[in-house]
Amino acid sequence: MARYTGPKSKIARRFRDPIFGPDKSLDKRQYGPGQHGPNKRRGGKQSEYAIQLTEKQKAKYTYGILERQFSNLFKKAQRMKGITGENLLQLCEMRLDNTVFRLGIAPSRRAARQLVTHRHIVVNGDVVNIPSYTLRIGDVVSVREKSKSLEAITSSLTTSTNKRYDWLDWDSASKTGKFLSIPSRDMIPENIKEQLIVELYSK
User: Fold this and answer.
1) What CATH number has the domain spanning 95-181?
2) 13: part of which helix (H) or strand (E)?
3) Which among 32, 39, 148, 188 would be 20 to 30 A from 85, CA to CA?
């Protein structure tokens, strides 16, 4: 299965949520994609399974994770202490590509993944080109020295809304960030009902 690279607005409209960021099409079209979308504004009643599956798909698209990776993350979350659903989202947030996005180095997770695979990102002084790399508390994420003048990075940092997260620290002068702690559920801004995903995998 290939990673989704199609129209982002189409997916956002399917979930009725701007999962890829602000999307004007959601305001203009209050219905799902497709030629029959306008006739399904209210939609029929969905089954419990369909609701749970939709929530899982939404989480996968939000974080840009494929089915096998997502399933493995869930299994790992089950083995951890604490609430499985919260553990799952924490593991998603601990991914390197997600952290690069959260720090503002890239405007989207898709762009962040590209920066990582193209070896523009350094973790604790070493180049890491694996987007799914799991960060630990205290890890330092920075832009590779020769990549600091890259237009894609400088543009993202310049146009960034300066949104900062409590579990991350950012030094704009050195273009360096630090993973301070594992975020609690109330810190994670994503509109995902993780308990529905747990119920789906528990069937």
Assistant:
1) 3.10.290.10
2) helix 8-15
3) 32
